[in-house]
TrEMBL record:
Name of the featured protein: General transcription and DNA repair factor IIH
A single MF term (Gene Ontology): zinc ion binding
Compartments (UniProt record): Nucleus
Positions of C4-type zinc fingers: 334-351
The keyword Lipid biosynthesis is annotated on this UniProt entry: no
Cited InterPro entries: C1-like_sf, Ssl1-like, TFIIH_C1-like_dom, TFIIH_SSL1/p44, vWFA_dom_sf, Znf_C2H2_type, Znf_RING/FYVE/PHD
Keywords annotated in UniProt: DNA damage, DNA repair, Metal-binding, Nucleus, Transcription, Transcription regulation, Zinc, Zinc-finger
Family of the protein in this entry: Belongs to the GTF2H2 family.
Lineage summary: Eukaryota, Fungi, Dikarya, Basidiomycota, Agaricomycotina
Function: Component of the general transcription and DNA repair factor IIH (TFIIH) core complex, which is involved in general and transcription-coupled nucleotide excision repair (NER) of damaged DNA and, when complexed to TFIIK, in RNA transcription by RNA polymerase II.
Amino acid sequence: MPPKHIDDMDIDSDYSDISIELGNISKGRNRKGKATDKRKQDKGKAKAKEQAYTWEASFTRSWDTVQEDEAGSLQTSVEDLMARGRRRRLLAPASAIRRTIIRHLILILDLSSAMMDRDMRPTRFDLMLQYAREFITEWFDQNPLGQIGVVGMRAGLGERIGEMSGNPQEVLKSISDRIKLEPTGEPSLQNAIEIACGTMSHLPTHSSREILIIFGSLTTCDPGNIHDTLESCFKSKVRISVVALAAEMKICRDLCDKTGGQFGVAMNEGHFKDLLFELVPPPAQRAITRTAGTGTTNPAADLMMMGFPTRLPDASPRSLCVCHSEMKSQGFLCPRCLSKVCDVPTDCDICGLMIVSSPHLARSYHHLFPVKPYDAVQNESDILEGSTACHACARPFPTKAAPAKEGLSPVGRYRCPDCHNDFCSECDVFVHDVVHCCPGCGK
């Protein structure tokens, strides 16, 4: 019995040793499994923190930006978003920058088959035409001394759609027929840019040469080296800006960076319109210096000749105009050669004099000295005594303060830094975008 007891003890001890070893192995495996799971969780968290795509940043918890008010309505949040969008351009510092007020712009439209995609409603092509019409109207309103021409690119070629003109109605008429602009084939950046540069090759040095390309394709069918065309644009001082609808292409980025233009990729319909309308104000003029005899540098300043025409009355006898060769009663007489033209501003076809009216010249002047941005009144203690309504439209200011938000006034007041009069948000935007003159101080 004792030996058996001892043998049993030995067997039991052997089993216990094996069980202990197996237990240690299983514990090690569990620890390893837990560590692996922990690393996977950490890796997953790191992937969640790191965004794989740039465009995902604009959709990260975007529902938090719109919140309901006390009554459960979203109207207040929508109005705040609209007001913030209206004041986005006004928050930039206003300073006197040397700008070119006589502008010449070639609008290049992508008429390739890629413009029929429906990622922008109803299609890229229809949305481009709609925004192009609005852009042309606003561009001529802010730059009455400028001229616009339209060029299309499709089927591997560049074609001239509208001649360069200072009359917005003629430019809008050139892109009004949708059937003639039906997209087809592949675009050609090189052909379109060469046509645009050839159109502006005769322009004087005091005017700007700009090209705006609305590009929706990811390819370009060029007959030669487009970098040679880029070098010729740089030597001719042509500024190229691109608004892409699909994605960023390196050649488009190079065209903008080397010529001093702007480049942007539209994320949605609203962003597409914002990128277009950012190009409405005239760009800053490049630094051109002349070395004097003393060794100092002075900015170049050239004078140009303009003529103020005589307007013919409606009851005047019909006569032949030099611009369209048609018999008309209305028109303007050139002060140098007394030729009749239909509209101003324009260049006389006989003597070449630039004919403008004084309101057009005065309206172009406001870009050089913009209205100072109004200061948003933040506290009710800063409200001046007796100021209960807007100085411009006489609309009463709100009596209850709203939550403070970036760029907006909680009390709905925006004060001129010179005359210290308070204006509402609508008048603030209207003064800076349309009137370009403060109603309180006249500056």
